[in-house]
Amino acid sequence: VDTDSIKDEL
Amino acid sequence: MNIFRLAGDLTHLASVLVLLLKIHTIKSCAGISLKTQELYAIVFATRYLDLFTTYISLYNTLMKLIFLGSSFSIVWYIRKHKIVRRSYDKDQDTFRHYFIVLPCFVLALIIHEKFTVREVLWAFSLYLEAVAILPQLVLLQRTRNIDNLTGQYVFLLGAYRALYILNWIYRYFTEPHFVHWITWISGLVQTLLYADFFYYYFQSMKNNGKLQLPA
Question: What are the C-alpha distances in Å from B187 to residues B131, B134, B158, B190?
Answer without folding.
Answer: 10, 14, 10, 5
